[in-house]
Amino acid sequence: MFLTHLECTLCGLRHDWTRLQNLCTACQKPLFAIVDLAAASRTLTRDVLATRERSLWRYREVLPLPANAEPVSLGEGGTPLLRAKRFGENVDLWIKDESLNPTQSFKARGMAVAVSMAKHLGTTQLAAPSAGNAGGALAAYAARAGLEAHIFMPSDTPRANIVECRELGAHVTLIDGLITDCGAEIARRKDAEGWFDMSTLKEPYRVEGKKTLGYELAEQLSWRLPDVILYPTGGGTGLIGMWKAFDEMETLGWIDQKRPRMFSVQASGCAPIVRAFEAGEKTAPEFPNAHTVASGLRVPKAIGDFIMLKILRQSNGGAIAVDDEEMIRVTREVGSSEGLFVAPEGAACFAALKSLRTAGKIDNGDRVVIFNTGSGIKYLDCFE
After folding, report:
1. Can you give the pTM of this predicted structure?
2. Looking at the chain, which terminus has fewer C-beta neighbours within 10 angstroms, N or C?
3. d(C-alpha 127, C-alpha 199), whole Å
4. Sign of the C-alpha dihedral, residues 224, 344, 87, 278?
């Protein structure tokens, strides 16, 4: 294992990885896991990857779990990158379909690594707020690990997600409010209850699982990153994780300095990153009266907002909001043209592609990758 320490994303303070950590003890901002890439590169090479299993654990040297610890795994990662056949004429469009992960969403990646590390470091009870798919993933991986899961969900979370968590053995509490209210309840109770908080970016290892999106994407595109990435953004762990992966791969000598233009796609009813980006802000104030059928996008305040906004600007990308009606309409358009029943969050990216092309921000010939983060089957309530 080549993990050396944890480092604050804002103030740079080093933290010890050998004990359970949430946020930076100095400034209460997210921590990143720092890997000795020079040492990792002695056994992890691009050629070696071709001989390894088709899962995110193929990148084991750049993941935090010690070599002698068995991962908590359900076969996550290794999802297909599909060339779009009919949607988006005159654009070299690709779809990274994360619905084929265990629990049918990209959340499986982050929870696989985070639960593996939490178990290794000795916790027995995990807690997280969730508007849907993260809860299902935590419930599944906690069950696989033999740990307790306590999941707090808004009472209007899609029924499929609530049933999934309960049937996987998690303790589910429904809260009249938003995911931020669920997170506040966990913060209030976690010390007394003995829970370890697994909230988005409030522990350092979910982002490590999500960074494998970037490694896989580069590998599937023969180590040439796309011109544009459209990513549905709630808490933003995937966006942040991919950017971390790109920096790591450049250090490893696997890719060059060129980066995709990163676009954050949000719902019109909950678009804190879009507002902050357009206003030139470095952080994103809480979005009032947040509402959207895309439950994964209903995150009115993200702790990693300052990281996301920095990435969008560094990459010469942007942020765009899509209304719910357009998401639902485009879901059918994608389904009938590509054979994929995408989640509303993924559909938002397809709608955003149209708007960005009309606005001249994506050119003919650009290689574009859209992330479909989950399966539409989890959102049947939206289509009634």
Report:
1. 0.96
2. C
3. 8
4. negative
